[in-house]
Amino acid sequence: MAAAGCRGVSRVLEKLENSIKNGDYYEAHQMYRTLNFRYLGQKKYNDLKELLYQGSVLFLDVDQKTSGADLGLLLIEALEKSEEKDCDAWSPKLSNIFAKIGPDHTTEREHFLIQAVKWSSQGNTYGNPTLHQCIAKIYWQELNYIQARHHYIRSHDGKGCAKLLIEFQMTKGFKSEVDLFIAQAVLQFLCMSNRMTANQTFTTYTENHPKIKKNRPPFLLPLLNFLWFLLQAVETKKLQTFAVLCEQYQMSIKRDPCYIQYLDKIAQIFFGVKPPEKKNSGGLFGNLLENFLGGLDDDSDEETPQPSQSRASTSRQILQSTDLD
């Protein structure tokens, strides 16, 4: 039975080769699907995955986008059924298919990408970082800065992300937005608990942006100083430092309404701040003060100072060792 099965597959492969040589792509596509069915039944996953990848690339190279994308989807199904775990090894291949589908075939491309990211989400809510890095580079080459940035934020490539942001800011942004482009990226990395990439992105951006060329304070732009101090505070996990930073840089933080939301989540992730119980609470600053004063109650038996006194005292203590704008 096994020998008969092998002979049957060999005949299909021979027909497939002849169909491709003759330019009969429809017949070739049907042959690939036949092989897919047979290989799945025989659990020849390794052979099947390579066959589908090569077939997808072949069709895409001759501008048979629909057939190529279809084989790409069958490849992802094969990866799932074979319980393939090596996302890093397959990410460049899946990205190659994605690139060859091209931006003009939006429906096929988006569907393929969704399935690829879904498959790569093994132990990572946001998908495999290597896959996102590969996809980001493709979008960048196509000058699709928004999508490139989206995928870089889900990668671990801080250097690549920073260089993209510099080009994005210089070609599409205003001069006054030099600090805004990096601020949102750093805060989003931190909201995803990706502290190391946030640091790498900030350092690379400030070192290489022609309007900055510096990676340590004092910066001319207050928001950059805030980000630098924030990254240090995240590393030490000192709530009082974080609270003072947010207080001292309120004007910079208020430049974008999203910053408050990001910082609220960062406070919960890195500083153990509890989410506000009421929607009409004092917001981030009120919540920070409440958590900080709660910590003082736990750590000291002395008389609890008034909120305004505690805030001023803490500010002076931090500012003695740290210069803030």
From TrEMBL:
Annotated PANTHER family: GOLGI TO ER TRAFFIC PROTEIN 4 HOMOLOG
Name of the protein in its database record: Golgi to ER traffic protein 4 homolog
UniProt xrefs under InterPro entries: GET4, TPR-like_helical_dom_sf
Pfam family, one: GET4
Domain of life assignment: Eukaryota
Cytoplasm keyword on record: yes
Keyword entries, A-Z: Cytoplasm, Transport
Organism: Ceutorhynchus assimilis
Chief localization: cytoplasm
Subcellular location per the Swiss-Prot or TrEMBL entry: Cytoplasm, Cytosol
Transmembrane segments annotated in the record for this chain: none
Region (Disordered): 295-325
Residue spans of biased composition, Polar residues class: 305-325
GO BP term, pick one: protein insertion into ER membrane
Family: Belongs to the GET4 family.
An example Gene Ontology CC term for this record: BAT3 complex
